[in-house]
Amino acid sequence: MSNNPYIGSSVDDLLEEEGTLASINAIALKRVIAWQVQQAMEEKKLTKTAMAREMKTSRSSLERLLDPENPSVTLDTIERAAKAIGKRVRLELIDAT
Prior knowledge:
The chain is mainly α. It has helices at 11-18, 21-43, 48-55, 59-66, 75-84.
């Protein structure tokens, strides 16, 4: 029998022990949102300039939203982007277990 403490544990358990799970989840979520917005923009043939105008925001704010490595984006920006591409945002809290 192995004495490895990580056998039987999940990747989430390991990341939680290292204290990186929350930031990794935030980056993963941001990447998904950025990808979905980018895909919808392509489908609707919206340029970044046109999308920023639809969102009533600056192009730099849109750039932050579309940057998959930048987790700093507000819910307001996400909501305005969703509205501009004919979508809505659904956010929910779930049990940590």
